[in-house]
Write a structure and sequence with these properties.
With 181 residues, the protein is an alpha+beta fold. The chain has 2 domains: 3-73, Arc Repressor Mutant, subunit A (Orthogonal Bundle); 90-167, Winged helix-like DNA-binding domain superfamily/Winged helix DNA-binding domain (Arc Repressor Mutant, subunit A), CATH 1.10.10.10. It has 8 helices and 6 strands, in the order αβααββααβααββα. It has helices at 3-17, 23-30, 34-50, 73-80, 90-102, 107-114, 119-127, 150-155; strands spanning 21-22, 55-60, 63-68, 105-106, 131-136, 144-148. The strands form 2 sheets. The protein has a 3-stranded antiparallel beta sheet. Strand 2 (55-60) and strand 3 (63-68) form a beta hairpin. Helix 1 (3-17) packs across helix 3 (34-50) and helix 2 packs across helix 3. The N and C termini lie far apart (62 Å).
Length: 181
Amino acid sequence: MQEEKLKSAVEAVIFACGTPVEIESIAKSLEISQDIVIKICRELSEEYAERQSGIRIVRLGKSVQMCSVEEYADVIRSVLDLRRNTPLSQAASEVLAVIAYNQPVTKAFIEQVRGVDCSGVVANLLSRELIEEKGRLELPGRPLVYGTTEHFLRCFNISSLDELPPIPNNEENKDGNGEQA
């Protein structure tokens, strides 16, 4: 298949899926390498940016997805009459941070870090599809372990967990006397 046809095919697949589609799946279906798919996605992204398009292609780990540009969010909401999702509570943000930076983790680990029960918060994050069950540990009781999802990456507009900001060093938060500033 010629290069322009391949680019159009990749674009059509990503658009039609509507949800994240694995780069490997696109490569297999078009009988090309994953590197070529990644290159095509990069070229499409550059073309969209160049013409100031209202859409873009985002990479979410091993997947890609077509989405709208953030500056049109209010217009899209009004057209679709979408209600804003309620923001995460402080507790949900804390639990999500513990999971994102330490995954895979058990509920017991999260509760140990936070010092309080987090069953309800974990259930809320599961229902919002920001976290998911990643399996069970081979320990007594076989506790579940949790990790973040592609939806988490999309919501925070990052392509991988490597893009999370670094955790501040506790020593930087202390004044010269070793006291918290």
